[in-house]
Amino acid sequence: MSIAEQKLLSQSVTKSFFQYLLPTLIGMMLMSANIVIDGIFVGNGIGSVALASVNIAVPVWSILISISLLIGIGGGTLYSIAMGARDTNKAQRVFTISIVLVTIVITIIGLIGYITAEQLAHLFGANADTLHYAVDYLQIIFLWAPVIAWEATMSIFVRNDGGPQLAMAGLIVSALLNIVLNYWMIFILEMEVTGAALASVIATAVGLLIYTIHFFKKDAGLKFMRPKWRQDDILTVGKLGFPNFLSEAGTGIFVIGYNIVLSYYAGTTGLAAFSVINYLHTFMFLAFIGIGSSIQPMISFYFGAKKHESIKDTVKIAEITALALGISFLAIGWFGAGGLVSIFGVETEGIRQFAIQGIKLFFIGYLFMGMNFIYMTYYQSIAYVAPSIGITLFRGVILLIAALIILPLLFGIPGIWLALPAAEGLTAIFLVIFARQGVMKRQWQEQGY
């Protein structure tokens, strides 16, 4: 019996939830800390223009991670369902195919991205001031793209195989190493933005090495086997992972959309202020992804094992946790906006006041974001993907773009900051009114995974 089976079949839902949540939440926050640390060191060691330049390159992370999540979450969900149904051979086959797929796809993207880095920088909103820094950062990230993808994908499978503590350990080591390398490369070696990018990818590579420890555990379910390319496995992995792909790709749309709108309404000052908010948002955003990542292995396993009441209990406790986290983040933003801006070394008063106003309004969205991620993950985890895709598209693309167009026309700059809260809030209200009751009364049917 694998590690995951031992835990989920013998423990209460509450105990299992927190055994997954705490290391996953800490791990996700440390993962986001890697990006925030880049911003702190770049802002203090190089300046606001470099900080804005790195922010322009952030969509590349979203592209790489979105594809990793497409394959990793899709494969991880199918892996957990198969393990819950005691089909070990299928679980190991899915794991092997997922790693091979992510390697092939990301290697191709990395090569193309490296060659076209300057064109991509222009596409993502770079101007004459930021282009040089943005290209330097992009080229390093694309060169190391497979390592970034392996780390993201492997952490998902290790977590699904009952190893959330090891996944957390890899991210802790990576985050601490990133701090040391950022300081050394930016302040000692004076490598500027190139140093920040190298620090992130080297730290990521070390985190990946930590995950390999899982394979030496005698009761580990993860094992490589000779790849068997079954079309139904590949299609199901893609289908189950597609909501996460859209969600992470939506992050890229979010950054590009905000960059374009702020560049139009507020110029470089607006871009610099948003770079601070976006670094902070990465931290909060990944915390809510952490809640989704915690319940996904549980719901998928319970679905495979036909433990339907356990699924409902998992959703309920996740809702309470997400609301508490959202209230905490809003309070931090409302009362601590000035301090949050200061840590990025912003000295220009115009940028500082712009960012403080933005934080107080933008953070309202965190009251609703957790609820949206819970239901997106719930539908995905029981292999009912259509509602999950709908939630992701509406909150992250359709409503967000509409809000970025309409709200600035009505309210000016504050309307820009309120675009994300409006999109998240409308989606959450819809889910509470129309989806939650059905979820709690749902009688599950096999989805033909």
Automatic annotation (TrEMBL):
<feature type="transmembrane region" description="Helical">
    <location>
        <begin position="283"/>
        <end position="305"/>
    </location>
</feature>
<feature type="transmembrane region" description="Helical">
    <location>
        <begin position="61"/>
        <end position="82"/>
    </location>
</feature>
<dbReference type="Pfam" id="PF01554">
    <property type="entry name" value="MatE"/>
</dbReference>
<dbReference type="InterPro" id="IPR048279">
    <property type="entry name" value="MdtK-like"/>
</dbReference>
<dbReference type="GO" id="GO:0042910">
    <property type="term" value="F:xenobiotic transmembrane transporter activity"/>
</dbReference>
<keyword id="KW-1133">Transmembrane helix</keyword>
<feature type="transmembrane region" description="Helical">
    <location>
        <begin position="354"/>
        <end position="375"/>
    </location>
</feature>
<dbReference type="GO" id="GO:0046677">
    <property type="term" value="P:response to antibiotic"/>
</dbReference>
<keyword id="KW-0813">Transport</keyword>
<dbReference type="GO" id="GO:0005886">
    <property type="term" value="C:plasma membrane"/>
</dbReference>
<dbReference type="InterPro" id="IPR051327">
    <property type="entry name" value="MATE_MepA_subfamily"/>
</dbReference>
<keyword id="KW-0472">Membrane</keyword>
<feature type="transmembrane region" description="Helical">
    <location>
        <begin position="137"/>
        <end position="158"/>
    </location>
</feature>
<feature type="transmembrane region" description="Helical">
    <location>
        <begin position="20"/>
        <end position="41"/>
    </location>
</feature>
<feature type="transmembrane region" description="Helical">
    <location>
        <begin position="195"/>
        <end position="216"/>
    </location>
</feature>
<feature type="transmembrane region" description="Helical">
    <location>
        <begin position="94"/>
        <end position="117"/>
    </location>
</feature>
<keyword id="KW-0812">Transmembrane</keyword>
<keyword id="KW-0046">Antibiotic resistance</keyword>
<dbReference type="InterPro" id="IPR045070">
    <property type="entry name" value="MATE_MepA-like"/>
</dbReference>
<feature type="transmembrane region" description="Helical">
    <location>
        <begin position="317"/>
        <end position="342"/>
    </location>
</feature>
<feature type="transmembrane region" description="Helical">
    <location>
        <begin position="416"/>
        <end position="435"/>
    </location>
</feature>
<dbReference type="InterPro" id="IPR002528">
    <property type="entry name" value="MATE_fam"/>
</dbReference>
<feature type="transmembrane region" description="Helical">
    <location>
        <begin position="170"/>
        <end position="189"/>
    </location>
</feature>
<feature type="transmembrane region" description="Helical">
    <location>
        <begin position="253"/>
        <end position="277"/>
    </location>
</feature>
<keyword id="KW-1003">Cell membrane</keyword>
<dbReference type="GO" id="GO:0015297">
    <property type="term" value="F:antiporter activity"/>
</dbReference>
<protein>
    <recommendedName>
        <fullName>Multidrug export protein MepA</fullName>
    </recommendedName>
</protein>
<feature type="transmembrane region" description="Helical">
    <location>
        <begin position="382"/>
        <end position="410"/>
    </location>
</feature>
<comment type="similarity">
    <text>Belongs to the multi antimicrobial extrusion (MATE) (TC 2.A.66.1) family. MepA subfamily.</text>
</comment>
